Automatic annotation (TrEMBL):
<feature type="transmembrane region" description="Helical">
    <location>
        <begin position="368"/>
        <end position="389"/>
    </location>
</feature>
<keyword id="KW-1133">Transmembrane helix</keyword>
<feature type="transmembrane region" description="Helical">
    <location>
        <begin position="180"/>
        <end position="206"/>
    </location>
</feature>
<keyword id="KW-0813">Transport</keyword>
<protein>
    <recommendedName>
        <fullName>Citrate transporter-like domain-containing protein</fullName>
    </recommendedName>
</protein>
<keyword id="KW-0472">Membrane</keyword>
<dbReference type="GO" id="GO:0005886">
    <property type="term" value="C:plasma membrane"/>
</dbReference>
<dbReference type="Pfam" id="PF03600">
    <property type="entry name" value="CitMHS"/>
</dbReference>
<feature type="transmembrane region" description="Helical">
    <location>
        <begin position="452"/>
        <end position="476"/>
    </location>
</feature>
<keyword id="KW-1003">Cell membrane</keyword>
<feature type="transmembrane region" description="Helical">
    <location>
        <begin position="496"/>
        <end position="514"/>
    </location>
</feature>
<feature type="domain" description="Citrate transporter-like">
    <location>
        <begin position="27"/>
        <end position="462"/>
    </location>
</feature>
<feature type="transmembrane region" description="Helical">
    <location>
        <begin position="59"/>
        <end position="79"/>
    </location>
</feature>
<dbReference type="GO" id="GO:0055085">
    <property type="term" value="P:transmembrane transport"/>
</dbReference>
<feature type="transmembrane region" description="Helical">
    <location>
        <begin position="340"/>
        <end position="356"/>
    </location>
</feature>
<keyword id="KW-0812">Transmembrane</keyword>
<dbReference type="InterPro" id="IPR004680">
    <property type="entry name" value="Cit_transptr-like_dom"/>
</dbReference>
Amino acid sequence: MTMALTERVILGSIAFAIFWILAVFPAVPFMPIGRTAGSLLGANLIVIFRVLTPDEAYAAIDLPILGLLFGTMVVSIYLERADMFKYLGKLLAWKSRGAKDLLCRICLVSAISSAFFTNDTSCVVLTEFVLKIARQQNLPPHPFLLALASSANIGSSATPIGNPQNLVIAILSKITFGRFLFGIFPAMFVGVVVNAVLLLCMYWNVLSVQKDVEKAEVELVLDEQVVSHRFAPATMSHVVNSLHSQDQFSGNEIIKDPNGVFDSSRNFNASREAANDHGSLQMRDKNVSLKTVDEREDQNFTSCEEKHNFSEIWRRLLWKICVYLVTIGMLISLLMGLNMSWTAITAALALVVLDFKDAKECLEKVSYSLLIFFCGMFITVDGFNRTGIPSAFWDFMEPYAKIDHAGGVAVLAVVILVLSNLASNVPTVLLLGVRVGASAGAISEASEKKAWLILAWVSTVAGNLSLLGSAANLIVCEQARRAQPSGYNLSFWTHLKFGVPSTIIVIAIGLILIGD
């Protein structure tokens, strides 16, 4: 029996509302089941309420997006094993010329790494490096943490593999990797520069504080003392002292003959000493020969060990080079316009084969909860689309959001900005993407491409508005808070004070630079 339209709207809206609450606020007191379970619950309710049939629900799951997401996660895991992010962390501190130089480096490295290895991955592996460097230079961490998170979001907008919403846009719009990159790259580059300038202006006085040299020297001395104590070899002092005292006693001892018969025993003592000397010579020769054999064995063992270590070093280096070459090959293939999902999966499998061992350890690091979250979200959002509410909303906004004039672009950007912070960026893309593209496609093909790129740009940079705006922000906050030995709590208001002006200015500048 076909469900009545009113019932479909009400029940579909309830299911989507439950999904939205649990996705935006995963620690809801009355149902603390988390985002992933909340996504599955919303999808299940869509089917139970018969907004979608089971077959329609399965059809709503976008396998190319899941394949691309899975492939990029596996590649990122192998890059982390190949010390790619470790080298990026070292690059931050290499010949640094002060706090301002460090902040600019963080912005640049974070943006570039996020564009090719996803913003979440970059934030996970770079937060600890950034916090450690800030502590070493006796600087407040929050400007650098803000630089890391905000630049990661801006940088990830440049490529389809930079963040999940771009994956969705690339698949739905069928825009090639190269066109996507060259369309948004100018906006991304200028956006990162503007974001860095805003950080410098806002925290200029904080970054101008010089490190206390005397305190640094004391800390250095203490560190050296700790290291020297930590690596000092353990000695059995009581045994050494007793042996030393025995040597001193035997060296100073005077043999006395109470009966005065010293001459009569001289010959006996001389013969005994001669025998002892002969025996000691034999023992010495034997010890020398044994020592020579031991030295030869030690040399052979050391030589074998050095050869083994040398071969291991070269094998490790060769494997790293292969990982980097496969990654470069994947990026080149994407730029050539090959299928993005299968390109990423092929690169992931190539790395698994090159590793030449059980891939269980690496595959266990894949965020399967994120993949499941996407499955539930696809079903829930598709069901909510069937209610007609998103279409009605867009029909109301469409006349004011035409991208053939500046006012329409501004209205569209505001709508995306607000929805991305209310409903999260990926659901916003799923709800508005096809409608925005179709509306712009009625103007021209170039306008359709531009509309998709605007959606990618605004929905991504909108994550910088508040601490809850993107997963990258939350990752930086949590990683910094849990860092040992001294964590740092990046507060909501500290982020908001910088996030609001930065987001508005960067989005506005980017809208001017996004190409047709």
